[in-house]
Design goal:
Elements (H helix, E strand, L loop, with lengths): L29 H22 L1 H8 L9 H20 L9 E3 L8 E3 L9 H20 L4 H21 L21 H4 L2 H24 L2 H8 L16 H7 L1 H17 L21 H11 L3 H28 L5 H26 L3
Antiparallel strand pairs: 1-2
Helix pairs in contact: 1-3, 1-5, 2-5, 3-12, 4-5, 4-10, 4-12, 7-9, 7-10, 7-13, 8-13, 10-12, 10-13, 12-13
Length: about 375
């Protein structure tokens, strides 16, 4: 797959469409709205797990930590709040605004969006990716039925995204490229191309699958036996190349989520003024201090697309490792924190590889 060229004549930051955040104009303070979000998420998660307990507990209860300490319970609660806080502070979307402005300077010129789907992209994608390591661990090595782990994963995604839906967080136009007005979205032609969507999804899924397969063939089997006392089955780690097609197929949802969380926002990021090849014109090396020089040399020479991709990659890797360690160590019987960190790190390496692949596709590597 050859690198994709960026569209010429992309809009500048001043003309880029920016949805109006209804939550930002709410009469309630931001802290109170976030408290509502946490409460909604916890109630939804508790209710759905209680309703599905008869279906899920037969499998999951057999590997769950039967006597968690207050520290472990508090850690899970604190991490849930952290997950929601990252999505909240990051401005991750919830649902589309019914109208989008073409030119912020012209408040009267608006074009309605025909699509009214309430699908959440950023929050749902991040949740799917960060919850995939513990979910896949139980499915692959603890003989838990895929229907049970999938149901648990869907509950986690729904309970995390529901607050953003109810609080009216708007979805970025980048996730609706076919419905974005012309000139309102950077690299619109790339984002709406079905071949690019398919190829980037498969690329990400393939990188995850190859990373896991390499770990299966090297250190992972002995590592799992050492750090997971109650592990039941290592058969998947010994299938060799024959197991790669099935692994690739199972990781397509993670590939699509990676595309939505990493590739789409970075590709749609509008070019900054210093991206024209002349560098940051506001930077004067003769008068700048140490901090300004450090910033310019370490971060300032990247363009806006590269910065967006790197920031999102850091968020993904950090949340993926953190969520995996907390949930596996506190929730899976016989799991050590070293084992949880090792399994999470394998996925983190895959995520870094996916980001590198997307950087190559965008032509920014």
């Amino acid at each position: 797959m050859a690198p994709v060229k960026r569209s010429k004549g992309a809009p500048t930051a001043s003309t880029t469409t920016k949805p109006v955040d209804k939550a930002a104009t709410s009469q309630y303070p931001a802290a109170l709205r976030f408290a509502f979000a946490v409460l909604i998420s916890l109630i939804t998660s508790t209710a759905l797990y209680s309703l599905s307990s008869q279906f899920l507990s037969g499998d999951l209860a057999t590997v769950a930590n039967s006597s968690p300490s207050w520290l472990e319970v508090g850690g899970l609660l604190l991490w849930k709040i952290t997950e929601l806080g990252v999505c909240w502070i990051g401005g991750f979307d919830g649902k589309p605004n019914p109208t989008q402005r073409i030119n912020p300077q012209s408040s009267s010129r608006k074009i309605p969006l025909t699509r009214t789907s309430i699908t959440v992209y950023d929050t749902a994608s991040l949740t799917l990716l960060t919850h995939s390591p513990p979910t896949s661990l139980l499915t692959l090595f603890y003989s838990i039925r895929p229907t049970s782990t999938l149901s648990s994963l869907l509950i986690d995604i729904f309970s995390t995204t529901l607050p953003f839906l109810l609080l009216g967080r708007p979805t970025a136009l980048a996730h609706y490229p076919s419905h974005a007005p012309r000139g309102s979205l950077h690299n619109r032609s790339i984002l709406k191309d079905p071949f690019t969507t398919l190829s980037t999804t498969l690329l990400a899924a393939a990188i995850y699958a190859i990373t896991l397969e390499l770990s299966f063939r090297t250190f992972l089997p002995s590592f799992l036996v050492t750090h997971f006392d109650a592990i039941r089955d290592l058969g998947v780690a010994h299938r060799g190349p024959a197991g790669l097609p099935g692994l690739l197929l199972a990781l397509i949802p993670a590939g699509y989520a990676s595309r939505e969380f990493l590739f789409v926002p970075s590709t749609a990021a509008p070019p900054a003024a210093e991206d024209d090849g002349e560098g940051n014109t506001a930077f004067d090396s003769s008068t700048a201090g140490f901090v300004e020089h450090l910033y310019e040399n370490v971060w300032g020479w990247y363009n806006s697309q590269e910065r967006a991709l790197m920031v999102r990659t850091v968020v993904l890797v950090t949340m993926l490792v953190g969520n995996s360690v907390v949930r596996i160590w506190s929730g899976v019987q016989g799991a050590s924190w070293v084992g949880a960190l090792g399994w999470a790190s394998t996925w983190a390496v895959g995520a870094l590889g996916v980001a590198g692949g997307f950087a190559w596709v965008e032509g920014g590597a």
